[in-house]
Amino acid sequence: MQALTLPARRGWRWLSDGFAIFRRKQLMLSLAVLGYWMAMALISAFPVIGRVAAMLLIPVFSVSLMNACRVLESSDPRPLMLSPPLLFSGFKKNSRTLLTLGVIYFVFTVGVFAAVALIDDGVLFRMVILGQPQHDQVLDSEEVKLAAQLALALFMPLMMAYWFAPVLVAWHDLSAAKSLFFSFVACLRNWRAFLVYGAAIVIIGALLPGVLAGVLSAVLPSGGGMVSIILTILIVLFLLPTLYASFYVSYRDVFVAVDDNA
Fold first, then answer.
1. CA gap 15, 241 in Å, rounded
2. Looking at the domain assignment, is residue 211 inside a domain?
3. Which domain covers residue 59, as residue numbers?
4. Pair 27, 236: CB distance under 8 Å
5. Concatenated DSSP letters for 211-253?
6. How far apart (Å, rounded) are the C-alpha atoms in residues 249 and 200?
């Protein structure tokens, strides 16, 4: 296994190729993503312990979705059906190591929000870790905004370490430490491609929906609720499945198999 260094323009292709995978079986991938979010919501519904369990299971379910994307890409789309067990396929191999990744993720997350609690008096900690809703007026304060920006900066290394880690554990049998290390190095090598990829997500996931919302609001001035429903449906059925498929494409492009006996 070797991590390649790709040109910046490849970041855009991750999103476009992800959409190509999504088009092979739109409904099936949409249902898989919807099933993932529903499962996480049900688990998180239990006070405190549910949110902890949901964080621990993120690597496992992310592997399930990557398995679904790999099946979609490698199979004839006409007879293909994504069976419900595929959503839980992440538990089949190296689940203990994947849960170890989840523990590391949870500990780091708690540490980050505990650190920024010195700035926002624990507002983000109570909201994200404990699941306690906060008033909009509190969230709009300068202290909370500063804490959120600092938390995002602290999360960047974690995101780099976790981007490929679950797949490296499940598909390449790496340990938790090695998977985090190789994922971080791979992201660091391809920071230009990730920069373009992030810009593409902002354009397609934020700017275009904003423009669409403005157009729909102008056409339907009294239909604010309908506009929100339409945008939510588009995001759930099209954007999220494409985004998850693009995660798989980034792995497929960055990592290549190396024959150690060659």
1. 11
2. yes
3. 2-256
4. no
5. HHHHHHHHHSTT-HHHHHHHHHHHIIIIIHHHHHHHHHHHHHH
6. 15
CA dihedral sign, ordered 51, 181, 248, 155: positive
In a domain, 262, yes or no: no
Instruction: Give a yes or no: residue 47 inside a domain.
Output: yes
Give CA–CA dist 231/127, Å, rounded: 25
Question: Measured between alpha carbons, how far is residue 6 from residues 77, 190, 246 in Å?
Answer: 29, 6, 15
Domain count, the chain: 1
Q: In Å, how far are 92, 120, 134, 161, 165 from 101, measured between CA atoms?
A: 16, 28, 29, 10, 8
Residue 77 included in any domain: yes
What pTM did the predictor assign? 0.85
| Residue pLDDT, tens place only, 77-120 | 444 455 667 778 889 889 999 999 999 999 999 999 999 999 98
